[in-house]
Specification:
heterodimer, A: 89 residues, mainly beta, SH3 type barrels, 6 strands, 0% helix, B: 115 residues, 3-stranded antiparallel β-sheet, flat
């Protein structure tokens, strides 16, 4: 079952390119990089030399799939432990 | 629906194993973290690891096992003994007459006498 825009909220996010399109924290807007780790509430993104933690619940994100497709998604839909996200709708 | 989430879990596990091997040895902690996540997926969705993923990482410390790099592989008393060079954890796998052993299965099919 390959990664498709429709199953992205249930698929593996680590390793994907991501950009913060909007955020309740203005400092996070425009941040982009590769997802290096994931917890229930946070995504850790390698942006430049730093690893930044961004809360899932306050951001609007754009993921770039390996095939070049773009997926825009509200971070709130990703709030769950990574292993529990598989079953979440 | 049930099969659906299992297939997805397996796919994610496979990706995580590959990511962990990529991150090794530059970022060992991250590599172990990915394999820990893979293990959690495995437990949560009650899937068995397919043969090509089994033995790719240490069951104790979750480091990737690359023969000659991060683990030592020896044949000792008819068993394959694998030692994780990160934590020293040791696994022994029988070589002779083991059920499901591919080499022995082929031999039996060829009519050879395998204990």
């Amino acid at each position: 079952m390959p990664l498709r825009p429709s199953n992205l909220p249930r698929h593996e996010l680590i390793g994907l390119e991501v950009e913060v399109l909007d955020s309740r924290d203005p400092g996070l807007r425009g941040l982009r990089g590769r997802v290096v780790d994931e917890t229930k509430n946070m995504l850790k993104i390698r942006a430049g030399a730093k690893v930044k933690s961004i809360p899932k619940s306050i951001v609007y994100l754009k993921f770039v799939l390996p095939g070049g497709e773009e997926v825009r998604i509200e971070g709130k839909r990703l709030v769950a432990r990574p292993e529990d996200r598989v079953r979440k709708a | 629906m049930k099969e659906d989430h299992r297939a997805l879990a397996l796919e994610r596990i496979e990706r995580l194993v590959l990511l962990a091997e990529e991150a090794w040895p530059e970022e060992k902690e991250l590599s172990r973290r990915y394999l820990e996540l893979a293990w959690k997926l495995k437990l949560r969705h009650r899937v068995r690891l397919p043969p090509h993923l089994r033995g790719r990482f240490c069951r104790k410390c979750r480091s990737p096992l690359k023969p000659g790099v991060s683990c030592r592989v020896r044949v000792r008393a008819g068993r394959m003994v694998r030692v994780c060079l990160e934590c020293g954890h040791l696994t022994r796998l029988p070589l002779k007459g083991a059920k499901g052993n591919r080499i022995n299965k082929r031999r039996r099919e060829d009519g050879e006498d395998v204990r």
